Amino acid sequence: MKNILVAEDETAIREFIVINLERGGYNVTEAENGAAAIQKYEEANGDFDIAILDIMMPEMDGLSVCKELRKKNSNLGIIMLSARTQEMDKVSGLMLGADDYMTKPFSPTELVARVDALYRRIAIAELRSENNFKQEIKSGNFVLDLKNHLLFKNGKRIELTQVEFQIMEYFFSNPGVSLDRSNILKYVWGEAYIGEEKIVDVNIRRLRMKVEDTPSKPKYIVTVWGLGYKWEV
After folding, report:
1. 177-189: per-residue pLDDT in tens?
2. Domain that holds residue 156
3. 116 and 64 in one domain?
4. Within this chain, do residues 122 and 155 fall inside the same structural domain, yes or no?
5. Is 145 helix (H, G, I), strand (E, B) or coil?
């Protein structure tokens, strides 16, 4: 089964999410607040593919849950839910390791499409691991381990989230090529993604904090003004 943890304190919204995900073939575990989400994650020994977290929850907010779950599992898919007025919280969630965010209200079709796209990325990663996929891509002082979703810089290991890994894979496959935001969005989030392009910029900022010597003066992930980014080594 495809296992999803849903943490949402508003009962009506949580039931809406659960019903539509179950119709989409997912096995859903519910949590009515952030603390319960962590408890259920630990009770299941982390046996979840994706976590859907509302930002505003009692006892422990979604941002804190995201941070805690990301520490426990770099491969877990995480989608944040936010109200339209929580713009900075969306960015904060992405910086803490979330893969995507959705703004309330959203349609059942959009919900399932976002979850399906994220699950496909996770399934591909697991398939590579199960098949002992050992291919590596080298770029300057960096090595991208395609099996374990790891990046090495001068031999030092850097853990990546699912989204970060796919962005780096795209960069490594196109060294020195200017890649616009829309192409990065399609490659990582899929052709059917209907979110905002700024999610690319937030993930680039997060990646720079991991790979650059001086994140404020990037020399590897270079901004191409008016277009997007390119990888230089």
Report:
1. 999 999 999 888 8
2. 134-231
3. yes
4. no
5. strand
